[in-house]
Amino acid sequence: MPLPRPVYIRAETVELSWADATRNLQELVFSAAHAALAGGGVPFAALDSVVLAAHDMVDGRSLSSMVTAPAAGAYLRDEVRLGEDGAAALAMATLRVAAGLSENCMVCAWGRASEGSPEAIAGALFDPFFARPLGMTEVAVSGLRASAALRERPRYGEARAAAAERRASAAAADGRAPAGGAAPPPAWPLRAGELPRWCDIVAALVLTSEPTAVRVGGVAMSSEPYWLGDRDLLGLPALREASAQALAAAGRTVRDVALFELDGLTLFDEALALEAVGGAGRGQGMTRIAGGAPFNECGGYALGYCAPAMGLVRAGEAARRLRERGDGVALASGGSTVAAQTQAAVVLEACP
Amino acid sequence: MNGIAVTGVGQTTYRRRHADRSTGELMGAAATAAVADAGLGLADIGAFVLGVAPDALCGVNCPEKSSFFLPARRPVVRVNTGGTTGGAAFALAVTMVAAGQADHALALGLERMGQATTSQKVFNTIFDPIYEKDIALSTLSMAAIRATLLMQRYGYTREHWAAIAARNYRNAVANPYAQVRREISVREIEESKLLAWPVRLYEACPMSEGACAVVVSRRPPAEGAAWVRGLGSFTDTYSMGDRMHRAEGSLVDLLTLRRAAERAYAEAGLTGAADRLRVVEIHAPFSSAEAMAYPALGLCAPHDGPAFAERTLPRHARIRVNPSGGPQAANPVSTAALVRIAECANQVRGRAGAVQVDDAEWAVATCQGGANQFSMACVLSARPG
Known about the structure:
- Chain A contains eleven helices and nine strands.
- By secondary structure, chain A is α/β, with parallel strands linked by helices.
- The longest helix of chain A has 21 residues, at 154-174.
- Chain A is globular, with a radius of gyration of 18 Å.
- In chain B, the strands form two sheets. Chain B has a ten-stranded mixed sheet with strand order 3-2-4-7-1-8-12-11-9-10.
- In chain B, strand 2, helix 2 and strand 3 form a beta-alpha-beta unit.
- In chain B, helix 3 (85-98) packs across helix 12 (333-349).
- Classes of the chains: A alpha/beta, B alpha/beta.
- At the A-B interface, helix 3, strand 3, helix 4, strand 6 and helix 8 of A face strand 3, helix 3, strand 8 and helix 8 of B.
């Protein structure tokens, strides 16, 4: 659905770190939120609402937004915290501004992988009777996807090494990857260079109803069943539908997209996501990444990863690059638990 | 909020533990009841907002996902704002409808806290692990601090807390969804176990499981609609010490609820709320906590609070506070705020059954969460405005 009124991104910040013992979670959140406000020249008093995305179990305390909401600027403001990926928070914040319920909205999402075991937290997502005893984690599901992709998409095997090398090169060139970030235990057939680099990440965006250099053209969300056997693990139909609807809301097609910033936990998730949104033909996702498609240009999963921040990280990266280029359309997405069961997509447009 | 209304309400019964129903079955029961009440099917719902608070209570991270009962390929969003979770889910459903993303959105709150072996330990993890654990701060001691302050500053007595609780239990007898459905006398309450002075067992809420769902629709037929006339939501500072002597409002003045109510009343065009409201559903897990909402909602001045409380006690009081029995009848934490909105919606729809209040044209529901850090107020009316 088209947005009832235009929504713009005033400023964005993505901050990465690893096990910074000098700052607690609130300070990490405050740092990014403050940087976004300062970068956009937005006075704190201009904010009238805050939308957050965070998971208690990642943060290590119940109702973590009690301490993080004020850090993100919510003191005596309208605030809500989603237990979803940051892209969903961006979508909901966009709808708030589009509906006239807010004029200037802070969107903030974070994850601090250094605080706990991402594998143990991911394991608790799964059904305690039928799935957890199998040792399922988010990375394990990516392994299942990769296995199926290697069987169903022959070119994935041919291009995976080159694609992984390109992700590593992009992350190295970006230079923001903090020292010390760990990688999860491998899940067959995933290899070391195809796995995420765990990271502490905070992303903050400021949305506004006033025109800026980057407009939110459209947003959409979709979902899949819980059980993996009920899903199309390779086709990612929720992402396919969310991206198609977001593009339609913006009056765009995938051919208009100059930059794809798509959340993917591993190299195979990224390649399949690129296919799902139409940025690559069926079976061509890995080859496109290996060939240097305009996709997750900072290195994606290889730069740093922690749910549920990543969709907002992707949108923030897209907004920054559109602002720098002054032209183009970007498609950003974020998948949330369980194993990308819910998806949100956002179309961003540079406003010359 | 023009043209947006609650058109369907569905609830499960609330119990200490629903041992016979899975999480998905609870959510499904509330959702199907709500859409049926709206004259719809699940396939007609364009967006879903699921409210679930601390995952640790049921031992599954994001339990709403592994209990998915919804049609695939629909927008589904999970919200977690502690006690206000159900209200926040409702507000996001309103947002999605207001932004034209769906003609009908479903807000659903779920609570499975009966699965927890130690709910108080889970709740204690909302507090700072370094500075607050040493002083045994818990949801109970927090309520006791506030009750004491209310007694000291505004003249409430322990008899007030018992009388408010007795009124809530009396009202709950007629509520078919209530967990506690028996009258409990003032004397019985005063003689119940002391939890944290001055709060006694029967002045506190029970532990409850259950689900509540509300359908929010755009431009529905007037018949059966509860019009969402105003919504306000505000967040306070975390540290309660920062609220003790604040000029804008102390720890017991609920500054955030006051501002939320002011915004909601302004949106609704509701002036003179104290004279025009017939129904108020207050989200307060302790009878003493209910008193903080009276002045915040503009129903009385702070120092008139004890007298106002006394005026709410008769069975046919002019302003009916918690005709459902409120959270003392059942307190499914992440659902209780949505229950307040659902009950108000049914009151202005004239569909509240045995707890129906006559002439309920306007109703206001409050939502509190996170050590009373988060507040919402929702004004519903029988008229679209």
